């Protein structure tokens, strides 16, 4: 998603982004801090999820022409000029292409004239017909923003699955019985400072994660969803070391 509410970006997600901001007030760091302090359980309801889902309505889901929801066995080549996040996700995906894939396209070619590519940063095969859809962050945005990014991809997935139901590659994410929506960032990304205070405070949005997963699971014909905020140690100087640390956590602690 773009930071500005007045986006001119050509994307099928434009209406979704507008609806999210109307629902949440904003997705800024300031709003994330506010919601962490006050909490608003019940803000995301099954009916709210249905409305967000409807913002992605499009006939194009029935006859998609793009290469969407495809598991890449080959990791895209590293080139200079990539962001830290792109470099890291490619390092991770290259470690085990049967368990990891990166930049899984969600909506290419779904709507004529809207060509902005949207892709899930990382997907992890976490067991038989179980996957984690991962929004990877190194320093950009905030946990509130990340939660609604990955939710948008989950809703796009439900649209695509409804009309296609079977993918073109193995592993096939359309066979999923369970999907974890994962927001993944370094420890420091999950902290903020209060004015006049020296200590760091943690964002507390667990109630939001529970609202989202409960509301998604109230929808018909959906796999079982969960939403988890996961952390990795603040990034070492080299992306390879960070990728190895994340892969180790994935194997030994998370899944």
Can I get a quick summary?
The chain has 255 residues and is an alpha/beta fold.
Describe the structure.
Strand 3, helix 5 and strand 4 form a beta-alpha-beta unit. This protein has 255 residues and is an alpha/beta fold. It has one domain (14-254). 35% of the residues lie in helices and 18% in strands. The radius of gyration is 18 Å and the shape is globular. The chain has a 5-stranded mixed beta sheet with strand order 1-2-3-4-7, with helices on both faces. It has helices spanning 14-24, 29-38, 46-54, 84-95, 143-163, 206-216, 239-254; strands spanning 100-105, 119-127, 130-136, 178-186, 191-193, 200-202, 224-232.
Give the H and E element order.
Answer: HHHHEEEHEEEHEH
* Share of β-strand residues: 15-25%
Number of domains: 1
User: What ranges have pLDDT less than 50 throughout 5 or more consecutive residues?
Assistant: 2-8
Dominant shape: globular
Question: Strand order across the biggest sheet?
Answer: 1-2-3-4-7
Total number of helices: 7
Distance N terminus to C terminus? Answer: 28 Å
* Oligomeric nature of the chains: single chain
Got a strand count?
Answer: 7
Specify the biggest β-sheet: 5 strands, mixed
Average pLDDT, all residues: 89
Name the features.
alpha/beta, 5-stranded mixed sheet, 35% helix
Task: Produce the secondary structure layout.
Blueprint (H helix, E strand, L loop, with lengths): L13 H11 L4 H10 L7 H9 L29 H12 L4 E6 L13 E9 L2 E7 L6 H21 L14 E9 L4 E3 L6 E3 L3 H11 L7 E9 L6 H16 L1
Parallel strand pairs: 3-4, 4-7
Antiparallel strand pairs: 1-2, 2-3, 5-6
């Amino acid at each position: 998603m773009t930071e500005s509410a007045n986006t001119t970006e050509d994307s099928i997600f434009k209406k979704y982004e507008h609806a999210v901001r109307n629902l949440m007030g904003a997705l800024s760091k300031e709003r994330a801090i506010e919601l962490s302090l006050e909490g608003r359980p019940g803000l995301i309801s099954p009916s709210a999820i249905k409305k967000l889902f409807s913002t992605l309505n499009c006939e194009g889901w029935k006859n998609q022409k793009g290469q969407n929801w495809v598991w890449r066995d080959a990791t895209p080549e590293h080139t200079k000029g990539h962001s830290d996040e792109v470099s890291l996700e490619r390092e991770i995906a290259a470690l085990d292409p049967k368990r990891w894939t990166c930049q899984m396209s969600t909506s290419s070619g779904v709507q004529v004239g809207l060509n902005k590519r949207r892709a899930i940063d990382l997907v992890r095969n976490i067991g038989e017909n179980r996957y984690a859809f991962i929004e990877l962050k190194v320093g950009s945005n905030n946990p509130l923003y990340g939660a609604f990014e990955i939710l948008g991809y989950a809703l796009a997935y439900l649209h695509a699955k409804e009309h296609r139901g079977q993918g073109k590659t193995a592993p096939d994410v359309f066979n999923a019985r369970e999907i974890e929506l994962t927001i993944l960032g370094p420890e420091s990304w999950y902290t903020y400072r209060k004015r006049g205070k020296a200590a760091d405070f943690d964002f507390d949005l667990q109630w939001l994660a529970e609202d989202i997963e409960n509301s998604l699971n109230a929808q018909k014909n959906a796999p079982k969803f969960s939403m988890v905020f996961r952390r990795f140690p603040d990034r070492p100087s080299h992306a390879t070391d960070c990728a190895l640390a994340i892969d180790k956590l994935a194997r030994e602690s998370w899944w």
